Structure formats: C-alpha cells, structure tokens
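Entry for the shared binder. Reason: the reviewer on the internal report wants the predicted structure included alongside the sequence.
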Amino acid sequence: MTSRVNGSNVFTYETLVHALSGAAGSVVAMTTFFPLDTVRSRLQIEEGHESKNTLAIIRELIAKEGFLTLYRGIVPVLQSLCASNFVYFYTFHGLKILRSSRHQSAGNDLLMASIAGVINVLTTTPLWVVNTRLKMKGIETHSEQSKSEFNTLYEGIIHIWKTEGIQKLWAGTLPSLLLVSNPAIQFMTYEAIKRRIGKICGATAPPAIVFFLIGAVAKTVATTVTYPLQLAQTKLRHGHSYHNLSPDAGTLQILIYILKKHGVAGLYRGMEAKLLQTVLTAALMFLAYEKIAAFVFRLLLQNRIVR
C-alpha cells in the first residue's frame, strides 16, 4: 500500500499522506456512526439505562429530545478527531520510517503505536475534555462541570482555563495515558494481520471488505481489554454522579467505587454500545484510510513526487 520516499526523516510526503488519510478516514467513519457514540456517552454518564439495549436508548432519546440529539456535538467531535488522528497517524508512520520498515514486527508496531499514543494524548486531551462537556451539555451530575457556558472548542478551552484552571483541560490524562494501550493494541493487531494477508495476496491488493474486517477485529480486541479505563476517563472529563464520592476522585477511586457498588458488570457499563460504535467506526476508518492513501499515492506516483 505504501511507496518508499527518499530521505529517512519523518517530514516526507509518505508520512503526510498517511496522516491526512487517517484523519479523513476517521471523519468519514465517525460521521456514519455518531449516534452510537451518543448512546455510549449516555450509558457511561447517566444512571437508569443499564437494562436497555442500544436501539431502545436511541428510540428513547429521539422520543424525549428529538432526532437531532443523536448528533449533538458532532462538529467539535469531528474537529477533534481530525486533529487527533492526524497527530497519531503522522507520528506512528513517521516513527516507522525512522525505525526502517524492513524490520517490521508486532513488537515494533506496539512500541511505535504507544509512543504515538502518548504524544497524541498530551497534545489533544484539552479538545476531548471540551468535547465531553459539549456532548453531555444539560445532563445533571454531581459536579457543576456539565453546565457548560460555551458552544465551540475554542470557547470551551478558554472558559475552562479561566474558570477552573488550566489543569482541568487535562482532566482524565492519567487514564488516557493508560489507554494508549488501546490504539497501540489496535494498531499492532491491525498491522500484524495485514502483513499476513499481504503475504497471502502477494502483489494483488486485498478487497475492501478485508480491511474492514481486520479493523473490526483489531478494535474488538483493544476495546475489550481497556474498557474500564475508558469508563473512568469519561467520568473524569464530564464529572460523575456518585453522591458518596468526592467530585475530585481519581481514576482508581472511581474504579473501586464502581466495583463495590455495581460489581464487575459496572466496570463494563455501556460496553455493548461502545463495542458496536468503536468496532464499526474503526473498521470503516481503516477501510477509508487504506483506500484514500492508496488513491493519493497513485496520484503522487503519476506526478513523480513519490518514487
């Protein structure tokens, strides 16, 4: 799928194509499956939905709040996702070039994906903190954080900085750093399976459905392993509704509280919607990414930019 570029540094057309293709692919996928992300957020934040399935919650939200509530906050989410995936894909593929693609292995992919994840978390967490506030705007919690007085990413960043302090823009950073394992496992699995498929297919490009299925498998593995941390991350960013727990509770305190009150099942609350949303989104994202990148590389080759 990739073509080699002159020079061993990360500032190449190849790395830029991967980054832009990853960003574009993520926007296509998230736009398609955004209502599932809305359901996942509601399940993780609000009480009372435990016994309902994804379709039932979608119907309930439409009946109570209107169809458009399923797409509440989609613009800032797409903006953040675009920036986040650009950073991640650029870093990941840039590091792969520096390490030399001749020595690709699952271990190397895991290392590169982990480093890319850390860089991504440290640079884009403020965007996701504001996103969580915007998406859950108007929902009551134990804290006052959900009563947002902003409507855009820029307004949100400035508002939180001025009213709550700059440290609040990095709320949930610890679980986010731990969750670097999620995309790291995902990319390691994806690249490993893709290499196997590549050997089987040889010079023939695999059909589109293959990339979709590889992406789905990779994301299923990653999400299942790391879901409790994702739940804690959401509550740290938005503010939890546990009246017997301090509003400033950390990751471990939240996880222990949920475990004591709801058991192991509580740590996987919203898992159905999360798996449905992330697996489908990741699968479509990888499919779009591969196809966009292949198309752009063909154009560049035709114009003799990449050799």
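Summary line for the report: The two ends are 13 Å apart (CA to CA).
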